[in-house]
Amino acid sequence: MKRILADLHIHTALSPCASEEMIPQAIVRAAIRRGLEMIAICDHNTAGNTAAAEKAAGKDITVIAGMEITTAEDVHVLGLFPDVWVACTVSEKILKTLPEMQGSSKILGRQTLMNAEGQIIGMETKMLAASSAFRLSDSVNLIKRHRGIAVAAHLDRPSFSVISQLGMIPDDISFDAIEISGAAVASSRIQEFYSFGIPVLTSSDSHFLSDIGTCCTALEILEPTFNELVLALRGIAGRGCSVA
Amino acid sequence: MKLNDLAEKLSLRNLTLEIQIKESTCVSKGHASDLLSDVLANAPGGSVLVTIQVHMNVIAVAIHAGVASVIFASGMVPDQAVIEKAISEGLPLYTSKESTFDIAGQLYELGLRGGHG
Would the CA dihedral through B42, B48, B52, B58 be positive or negative? Predict the structure, then answer.
């Protein structure tokens, strides 16, 4: 068993709100420099740049293909998937329910699809900042049907979290983990989040290169793979996770 | 204002006909919000909540905040399970095709006020 650091919520330039500097190669380099051995790419409502990030990483660092779904209730839920192909299958279903951009990218931000070298290969035409038609329960079911990990994103934040939108975690939703921000880790509120009885992750929710690894989760695992991450969240055979 | 009269004046569609609303049920406060964390923190007790949020949690949050009734705006109608939960809790639900803004405006004209009004 070894202890590794993971930052499981990083946006690329595909997210309209993320910096143009968030190109796959640069993200991977920054993550390695900060001692991370696992990162997850989670753009809003799409997994369109996960293949590029995985290729850019090579064998140097593990990239988990994910996405940050905006549910019909404006709740952000992270889906982390076994591989890029599965993530893109889910992504296609979500994208179909989003409105078209209609030339508003100047206000909302560019949505850049890239290859591993960081070259622009296209622009996403769906409005990624909008909410999908998938309700919270449907989104979590969709993630789980595809063997993914469902995480309640930035639960401590006053916007787009399950708590802010719905007042509490609904009884019928079983998240695999909840994510809190670095600010919550440092605050006296931390115990409040442990009280849910669900593994607590902390991630940077990076929109800029300088955010990467500013807060991260420590994993006790055999090797940095998706399967080991799943086992760590379940606390199986000495594996585990903790805020770092 | 009596809740029954208010519903009639705004031509609201009653989603919970099974609930017998007492003649004496009156409302004088209103709250408009789709964020249930805000409803929990700021909806005045005994108020009418106007929202487009149709998630099941609306019921638990409304009960917790002491909201007297919920009006779903813009033609929003929650799932049957949500309606049944409201019936079992005795929380009257209505729906209207009009927007939150227009419903709130009409409630204001009828004399209802927000938490600080």
Answer: positive
